[in-house]
Predict the 3D structure of the following.
Amino acid sequence: MTTAVIANPMEATLMPDKTNAISRKRLWTGRILTGLPAAFCVFDGVMKLFKPPVVVQATVQLGDPESTINRIGIIRPTCTLLYLIPRTSILGVVLLIGYLGGQSRPTFVHSSRYSTSFPR
């Protein structure tokens, strides 16, 4: 009676590695669809830190006091960067959802003329 010896016992249970393969097209599409909104969020936050008059005027018109512009300028890019780091992406997306939900307040409360998402 002969028995076959398997050099690596785990070899018999491993599945082919093709299940984790992602095409280059899908990979770059995902990077672009993630990168463009992230770049906008970081740019918006940085502009709030520099406080050009247009940003200050628009923020005040939307109902936020001028004293909150610096905090907003720090929070938004920080949440975005947390989203872009793979280990903290879930925390980052939860924080971004909360931030963007709070920032949509002027649309509903003040019927802001800056609203393009929800026509009147």
User: Anything to note?
Assistant: Residues 29 and 119 are 30 Å apart (CA to CA).
